Fold this sequence. Notes:
Arc Repressor Mutant, subunit A
Amino acid sequence: MIPSQMLKGILSGCVLAVISQRETYGYEISQKLGEYGLGSVSEGTIYPLLLRLEKSGFISALYRESASGPMRKYYSLTPAGRLELEGFISSYGELSRAVERLLNEMEAVK
Length: 110
């Protein structure tokens, strides 16, 4: 299981990545994150994050009818959100490579 503090730093980028695949709603985003191995992300975490992303202009929201109950709020990426996601991908790649080098060097010293 990924520690919550470690996940906290990358969750926004991961949510943008899920939304970039297709228009989706909060519960489905949480489920997708779990399917990718990021653990169980609670609604108490996902909805405030979605609100921050929306206020930042990275996602837009639209209420739509749901086949299984009340209307749902569907999220999609804005052009600013696509740029933010590209920046996240680049930064995460740099971080991942740096940590990988460090851990490989550590293993070589053992």
